[in-house]
Amino acid sequence: MNKKLAAALSGGAVLMVAVSGCSDGGDKGPDPKLVSWAKTVCDAVPAQDAKIRSANASIAAIATDTNLPPKEAQKTYAAAFQDMSEGYKALADALDSAGAPPGIDGGAKLQQDAAKNLVGLSTSYTDLKKKVDGLNTKDQGKFAKGLKEVALQTKEVGKQSDSGTQALKRLESGDVKEAMAEQPSCKVAASGSAQPTASTTAG
Predict the structure, then answer these.
(1) Secondary element (H or E) of residue 89
(2) Per the record, where are the segments of Polar residues compositional bias (predicted)?
(3) What is the pLDDT of residues 48-75, one digit of tens each?
(4) Global pTM?
C-alpha cells in the first residue's frame, strides 16, 4: 500500500520539470523584459524543487519498510505533505510576484492559470497532511486502513498534478520557454528533477 502512496506522490517532481524545462532556443533572443520576468520565477525554483524532491524521497524511503512503527510513518508522511504544500505555495507566490510574462499574448491568463493550479496543489497537500495527522497510530489495522484512504486521495491529487503540469506547459512555451532556458536556476532545477521522478515511481 505504501508503494501506491509513494507512486501517487511522484507528480511533484514532474511538475518541477514542467516549470523549469529548458530548450535549445531559437535564432533570436527573447525580450530582455521577458528574461527579467523569467529570472524572477526561476530564482524561486531551486529551493522549492529541492524541498519537493526531498519530500518524495522520504516517502520512497519508507514505502517498503513494513516494520516502521505507525507513529514514525505518520510523522514522515505528514512532514512530506507539509513540505510539498509549502513548496507549491512558494512557486505560486513566485508566479504571482512576477505577474504576467511581458509581450506574451494571453500571458496574464496563462500565468494566473498556472498559479491557480499550484495553489490548488498546495491546498490538497495540506488536506492530506491533516488526514495523516488524524490517523489512529495505536491500532495497526486502523492505521493501515486510514493510509489506504490517504492513498486514494493522493490519486486525485495526482490528477490535479497532471492538470497543473499542462497549465505550466501552456505558460512555458515559445518565448517564455526560451527566456527560462537562459536562467541557470531553472537549468539546475530541471537537471535535478528528472531523477527523483523515475526513482519514486520505480517501486
Answers:
(1) helix 70-98
(2) 192-203
(3) 888 998 998 888 888 777 788 999 999 9
(4) 0.79
